[in-house]
Write a structure and sequence with these properties.
With 368 residues, the chain is an alpha/beta fold. Helices cover 39% and strands 18% of the residues. The strands form four sheets. It has a seven-stranded parallel sheet with strand order 3-2-1-4-5-8-12, sandwiched between helices. Helix 6 packs parallel to helix 7, helix 8 crosses helix 10 and helix 10 packs across helix 12. The longest helix is centred in the N-terminal third of the chain and has 22 residues. The radius of gyration is 19 Å and the shape is globular. It starts with a strand and ends in a 14-residue tail after the last helix. The relative contact order is 0.15.
């Protein structure tokens, strides 16, 4: 028996990782998820329905534990139960919003940093040869990207084409002397821990510093889940607020399936203490203005949107990842889904559920 333990198993990345590694790699899945997302963002963001679908699809291949990752005795007991049968750990459980983090910094830090420490230590003690994959974030770089030489175009900000990061921001960008946001700080702590367990103990670990991770099953909310929440507003007529930078702020977006493919590549040929910027890169990115236009085109209706001059603290003006380091290690991997494809898929997957409701509620969205 070969086991994958997946934290945050009912979330977007966790659930898709569970399905992939069960069906494509034949692993038995042990999921850990206590639906804290509902506490963070409300019942509309609950992962309970996702968990139900996952249990129905995988059946006996899936075992669930509704355990808090901060509960060290309980987490250690789960890992000890499966021991050396654990070949893979995918750690996606987190508090994922830098806006929410400012409302409760202690919870944010204990979930993101302490929780990661608990899961890492349990892995090291029970299954030291397991591959450990961590969904980190580009927020570890703080607002350093805003110091790049940016050029304002009609619908987006762009970087000076002569700059070394013209193809995307690389892992050599400093994480020091910058405004991280409290969320960014907690994820920096977790990120460094994952690296250290790889380098110090020789564990096979990787930090995937993602930008906007998305897909049709993403339960996007105003504080987290840029494209999914935008498309939901476009489909239902719910007002959407753009915060700062003239709506020209740029994000790359990576489909969950492309990220899982990267996980699989690393699992197949693991390394120790690796760090990868991981996003849509130059293949899949958009500005807020461009995303709104695409959403209007797909839904066939104008969006109800407003603009606030106040940008969010520590928010990036321009972020496009360089995937070159990962591609250098795993040359067969590539981005297969672009922003228009992703938005279309989100809409087609959810339109029957969204459109009949048609209830308009005021909201604003973070581009995270």
């Amino acid at each position: 028996m070969s086991v994958a333990i997946i934290t945050g198993s009912a979330g977007l990345i966790g659930s898709e990782a569970a399905v992939f590694f069960a069906e494509s790699r034949g692993l038995d899945i042990v999921g850990i998820d206590n639906d804290m997302r509902a506490r963070f963002f409300g019942e509309e963001a609950s992962t309970s329905a996702s968990l139900g679908r996952l249990q129905q699809r995988l059946g006996k291949k899936y075992t669930h534990f509704p355990t808090d990752i901060r509960d060290q005795p309980a987490i250690s007991k789960i890992f000890a139960k499966y021991g050396r049968d654990v070949s893979l750990v995918v750690h996606t459980a987190a508090q994922p919003s830098h806006d929410w983090a400012a409302t409760d910094p202690t919870t944010d830090f204990t979930v993101n940093a302490n929780g990661t420490a608990v899961v890492l230590e349990a892995t090291w003690r029970a299954a030291p040869n397991a591959v450990f994959l961590f969904t980190s974030t580009n927020k570890v770089y703080g607002d350093t990207p805003n110091r790049l030489p940016l050029i304002e175009l009609e619908k987006r900000w762009e970087i000076d084409p002569a700059h070394q990061y013209a193809g995307g921001i690389k892992e050599d960008m400093s994480i020091d002397a910058t405004l991280h946001s409290l969320f960014g700080a907690s994820k920096v702590a977790a990120d460094i821990l994952v690296q250290e367990y790889g380098r110090y103990f020789g564990m096979k670990t990787a930090c995937f510093r993602g930008g906007c991770l998305t897909g049709p099953n993403h339960a996007g909310t105003a504080l987290h889940g840029f494209l999914a929440y935008l498309m939901k507003c476009a489909a239902t007529g719910q007002p959407y607020t753009v915060h700062g930078y003239q709506g020209k702020q740029v994000r790359d977006n990576i489909h969950s399936a492309d990220l899982i493919a990267a996980f699989n590549a690393f699992f197949s040929a693991p390394r120790s203490g690796e760090v990868y910027n991981m996003g849509g890169g130059r293949d899949s990115n958009c500005s807020m203005m461009e995303a709104i236009e695409l959403s209007e085109e797909i839904t066939g209706r104008p969006m109800s949107s407003t603009y606030s001059n106040t940008n969010r603290i520590g928010d990036h003006i321009w972020w496009i990842s360089s995937n070159d380091r990962f591609k250098g290690h795993y040359p067969e991997w590539k981005i297969r889904r672009t922003v228009p494809m992703i938005l279309r898929e989100i809409y087609e997957h959810n339109k029957e559920r969204w459109e009949p409701a048609g209830k308009v509620r005021a909201g604003s969205a973070a581009v995270t």
